């Protein structure tokens, strides 16, 4: 059973999964904006390009590496982005970031996941936006965070996965912001590290 995360909530990923997690997947899903048209004619769909990113931080809270649509793999190979969905078309996760927690270098203290609206629509316009964390081995959803309809912002610092006393934990940050890429969010991420 998954946990529907609230802003500020912290969970132990190992406890939620029932075992030590080795690999996790962060999934991001959303739907294109649908307009009904005039008297049912001319209905159309407006593409929405949301982007999932992961920033790796060290013990001194310095960014070490970034996984996003322009760099789909971390330099050490422990994190892989599946690619950029530019429309929101389709069901399920539109973008995924795969993390092999066993391969994340010891010098990495935290991973921060963000979502940005590259095309500029704010989240109050985007339907069914969510992110979720899955146990990659079993496919079991460990945690879910609903991103939709929280206001007229174009970005969100979603969650932080971090090491604490030898286990991985997750902090649902849920900080609304504005920006087209993760780079716009770095000053807002730092207080959460």
Helix content: under 10%
Report the C-alpha radius of gyration, rounded: 16 Å
CATH fold naming? Lipoxygenase-1
- State mean pLDDT (0 to 100 scale): 86
Organism: Rugamonas apoptosis
Protein name: TerD family protein
Pfam family, one: TerD
Keywords: Tellurium resistance
Helices, strands, pairings?
Layout: E1 3-4, E2 10-12, H1 13-17, E3 23-31, E4 33-35, E5 44-46, E6 50-58, E7 63-67, E8 79-81, E9 95-100, E10 108-117, E11 127-135, E12 141-146, E13 155-164, E14 167-177, H2 186-189
Parallel strand pairs: 1-12
Antiparallel strand pairs: 2-14, 3-9, 3-11, 4-5, 6-7, 6-10, 8-9, 10-13, 11-12, 13-14
Fold and architecture overview:
The protein is mostly beta strands and 193 residues long. It has one domain (3-33, 43-192): Lipoxygenase-1 (Sandwich), CATH 2.60.60.30. The chain has two helices and 14 strands; from the N terminus they run E-E-H-E-E-E-E-E-E-E-E-E-E-E-E-H. The strands form three sheets. Strands 1-12-11-3-9-8 form a six-stranded mixed β-sheet. The chain is globular, with a radius of gyration of 16 Å. One of its GO terms (biological process) is response to tellurium ion. Residues 1-179 form the TerD domain. This is TerD family protein.
Question: Top keywords for this entry?
Answer:
6-stranded mixed sheet, Stress/Tellurium_Resist, TerD family protein, Lipoxygenase-1, 193 residues
């Amino acid at each position: 059973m998954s946990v529907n995360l609230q802003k500020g909530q912290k969970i132990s990923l190992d406890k939620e999964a029932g075992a030590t997690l080795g690999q996790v997947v962060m999934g991001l899903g959303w739907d294109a904006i649908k307009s009904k048209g005039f008297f049912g004619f001319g209905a159309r769909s407006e593409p929405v390009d949301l982007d999932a990113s992961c920033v790796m931080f060290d013990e001194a809270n310095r960014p070490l590496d970034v996984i996003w649509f322009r760099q789909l793999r971390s330099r050490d190979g422990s994190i892989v982005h599946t690619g950029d969905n530019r429309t929101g078309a389709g069901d399920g996760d539109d973008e995924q970031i795969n993390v092999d927690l066993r391969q994340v270098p010891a010098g990495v203290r935290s991973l921060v996941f963000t979502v940005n609206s590259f095309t500029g629509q704010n989240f109050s316009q985007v339907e069914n936006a969510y992110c979720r964390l899955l146990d990659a081995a079993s496919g079991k959803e460990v945690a879910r965070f609903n991103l939709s309809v929280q206001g007229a912002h174009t970005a969100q610092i979603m969650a932080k996965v971090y090491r604490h006393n030898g286990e991985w934990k997750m902090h649902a940050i849920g900080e609304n912001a504005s920006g087209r890429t993760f780079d716009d969010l770095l000053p807002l991420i730092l207080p959460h590290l």
